[in-house]
Amino acid sequence: MAEMRFHLLGPLRIWRGETEIKLGSEKQRAVLGMLLLKAGTPVRRQEIIDAVWGGDEPDSVINLVQTYVGRLRRGIDPDHVARSGSSWLAGLGSAYEVRLDRCEVDLIRFRATTAEARRAMSAGETLELLLRALRLWQGPCLSDLDHLLKGHPWVRAVDHERIGSLLEATKIALQLGRADEVTPHLYAVAAAEPLNEVVRSWLVLALAASGSQVEALAEYDSIRGRLLDELGIDPGPQLRAAHLQVLRQETAPAPLYEPPPPAETAPWPSLLPAGIADFTGRGELVDRLCGTLAGHGPGPVPVALITGQGGAGKTTLAVHVAHRLSDDFPDGRLYADLLGTGTRPADPGWVLTRFLRALGVPPPAIPQDPQEQVDLYRTRLTGRRVLVVLDDAGGRSQVEPLLPGSPTCAVIVTSRSRLSGFARTCSVDVGLMEPGEARSLLAAILGPGRLEAEPEAAAELVRLCDRLPLALRVAAARIVSRPHWTLGRFAERLGSGGLDELVLDDLDVRAGVAAGYRRIDGAAQRAFRLLGLLEVPSFAAWTAAAALETAVESAEELLDVLADARLLEAAGPDATGHNRYRFHRLVRLHARERAVAEEHAATVGAVLTRTLAALLALAEEAGDRLPSYGDGPVRGRAPRWPPPARVRERLLADPLSWFESERAGLVAAVLQASAAGLDELAWELARSIRAFAMLREDWSVLEQTHRAALAACRHAANSAGEAAMLHGLARLDRHRSVRGRPAGIGRTDSQP
């Protein structure tokens, strides 16, 4: 295969072998640029849309992205695009990934070389490697796409990597008397960052150290004038200090912070919150995390990532593990709540200042420049065994400045998001507790005697709390605070009061779900509200498309956003090969609260009717493809909402598999339609299941659905529906009798 090379450290350029590939469309180039910025990790289609179109996307934007991706595959690697899995650009559902085993990306080379520089054994070797990395740059990242991607966080982050490596190289070069080797790079970055005082201050020092004092003073005058003209401000303390040093003709760079004290005299901070005495379960996860973080050898800093939905116990687990590992990290345990799910996430600079103070740095010696803070922090941790716990991270940008550079340290990160890209990462996902673990947690708080006295009520509490640790803790704490309450009484209150019963002081299950809801955009919020109206145990994208009245592809995008925000859980593929999603019970309750508060009653009714009508249309068509059991084509007045033909054919290619996938959902749909007074939909849905249930001899499904629909029809005086359900129950009774089962189970008092 011809080797493909991508350059994004400057204008975007592409080579296949020795041939440079030209791409005409700017938006196509921007799509490629976004993929290359995250080469080696999946990029969601919605992230590309948000970056390239900036909220002004056309209705056909999904098709446009798919078209651009197809053209990129064909135009850059035409020989291998047709072979599944062999393309340099892999498709992963609604995401795409540049495969690093199929191509070379200069950003990856840059990062590998800078990482090698930081592992070098001498200052001279480090400088050589940093200069080699800096020579890969031909301008700002994706500089030819500034008008489309300028200011995007991913682009800025890469440019900041360049600046950080350049400043690191400059400090070493000045100490070694080799300032002239970094001056061209400083000039290049200063031209791209004309108001960056940190870069300009080091440029002034480097020019003076190279013997060009006049140029150094002219550079200071230039930036001083520009700051005054464009921003109306004077140079900051770092730039003024560099100017003063040049005036004094000091050849060595002045330290921007005091040197750290020897490791043996530095304080041993312990910022961990207190552990929870009644910590229960999670034994396998605790052992795995401790094994990853304790006793590690040379190499990158080990990072343990703990993810899960709000209230799953991520913080409790992280703090418990950190206390367990205290002996392995005798030089300190640092902890910070990054507030990533709140409205105002913590600034990494503020956290660094707090950490530096805990590590013994006097406040006046803490530098103002963020990169200098990172340098000092990592210097203080060099050679020390310190565990850093970063709780509730909103994204990698919050975490990266807080990572130590010394492999003697270790890091635990908790987040609702599945962060990626950290070397030596152990990632664990904290799900709901097992039923036995949930019961043990209640027993640890309430005492085993109370559970033994009311075992059925205890089981109901576990179910109503959805085995969510936070909900179980709040429920148990509320019962403890009311000694006269029985478990049964609180279970009744919880069943009728919902999330209002799961609040105690600052412990609030609703608040945890609401934090995730606030962080997603308006379209995803609406999808969350409306999908929460459905009582099906799980659903595929086609169901969401019907509920939201949108294309299946758009529904998939929204479902992925909700899953990323931990407002939905991906339940894996069904028998037809389509991914399914489900709500946790307490999350669904909040979705319905938001629907009641933010949606018109007519919208709520239309969503339910439309979704059930789509399910009915598919069930009837699937039933027509199964063997007949003598039922004639009986149709009522219920509406049908058939999905597009291409969707129907894909879903119903194997009608039996479709019924297997939707069995529980069909039962739930009949029950919900019956409870909502949609009698026509209730009985027609129940009848549409009959062929499948007869084939599988699934008498319980027929019994449950037909009796629920029968009750709804009688309540609505729907004689046609009542007759259809009675006929079905009678046939069920005969089939049971023929197969040697007791007769009469399907009869009702009104049967002839």
Automatic annotation (TrEMBL):
Gene3D superfamilies: P-loop containing nucleotide triphosphate hydrolases (3.40.50.300), Tetratricopeptide repeat domain (1.25.40.10), Winged helix-like DNA-binding domain superfamily/Winged helix DNA-binding domain (1.10.10.10). One of its GO terms (biological process) is phosphorelay signal transduction system. Residues 1-100 form the OmpR/PhoB-type domain. InterPro entries: AfsR-DnrI-RedD_regulator, BTAD, NB-ARC, OmpR/PhoB-type_DNA-bd, P-loop_NTPase, Sig_transdc_resp-reg_C-effctor, TPR-like_helical_dom_sf, WH-like_DNA-bd_sf. The keyword Hydrolase does not apply. Keywords: DNA-binding, Transcription, Transcription regulation. It comes from the Bacteria. CDD domains: BTAD. Residues 1-100 bind DNA. GO terms for molecular function: ADP binding; DNA binding. It holds the Pfam family NB-ARC. Belongs to the AfsR/DnrI/RedD regulatory family. This is OmpR/PhoB-type domain-containing protein. It comes from Planobispora siamensis.
